Amino acid sequence: MMRANELNWDARTSVHIGSRYYGLEDGKASDPSRWFAPFEWEDLGELEGRDVLHLQCHLGTETIAFAQRGAHTVGLDLSGQAVSSARELAQRANISVEYVQANVYDAAEVLDGRQFDVIYTGKGALYYLPDLMPWANTIARLLRPGGRLYIAEFHPLLNALRPRPHTGDGPDLVGHDHHASSLAIGHDYLASGAIQRESTHTYTDGPALLGATDFFEWMHGLDDVVNAIVTAGLQIERLRETSQLPWRRWDRMARTREGWWQLPDDEPRIPLLYALLARR
């Protein structure tokens, strides 16, 4: 299943590079910081001179933002195509970032005992992992004593919602609600084993994928995330929930002053993204 996901992300990469969604004008990330909420930088603190590892970094659009703030930055991703593209993007932007292709579960071995001050992950990463316990143990090995883990991830409630009347098929179809008038619980919030999906189009604009259209997801409730982190010996210091997203999940969402997106004011305020800070 992880191999299927690797091939699927390889196939997605060329589509994402050319998409309006990622905004890679002239082959460069136009504004990497647009993917971050202001509170993320507040939680992360000063990064100048810090060793930062971005797990499941995909094209490195966020990874570059850490390097721009003076961090010694490493990005790690399962997809070889994504890592190659991320290296090209960093080179064109004249930003120094080290990229490594590896399964996140193998990160401690692949990075050969290196440790980091900050590990960052999220925004569509965790539901491509079947088991969070070995993931959390790997992170504990990769953090220096006192080092911090920061997760900014789509809320499991977001993944459980679907437009009503339902015309979509799962959390990987983003930004297309066909002008639905309301939301309903339509997918698992809690873990229920592997979910096999097949989609000829990825979550961005652009053409259909060329092959490798099957992929697997695993839903993780907040309890899965929290319990894995605590069991691995990390201490949770902060948890946030926000009603905003860095992209337009549903057509009727409105842009905020910070450039993110939220549901209209006359709709219930629900968590769409959470951020968790933990320390070794």
From TrEMBL:
Gene Ontology MF terms: methyltransferase activity
Which SUPFAM superfamilies does this entry report, sorted A to Z? S-adenosyl-L-methionine-dependent methyltransferases
Question: What does the UniProt keyword field contain?
Answer: Methyltransferase, Transferase
Where is the Methyltransferase type domain positioned along the sequence?
53-149
Q: Name its GO BP terms in alphabetical order.
A: methylation
- Highest rank taxon of the organism: Bacteria
Q: What is this protein called?
A: Class I SAM-dependent methyltransferase
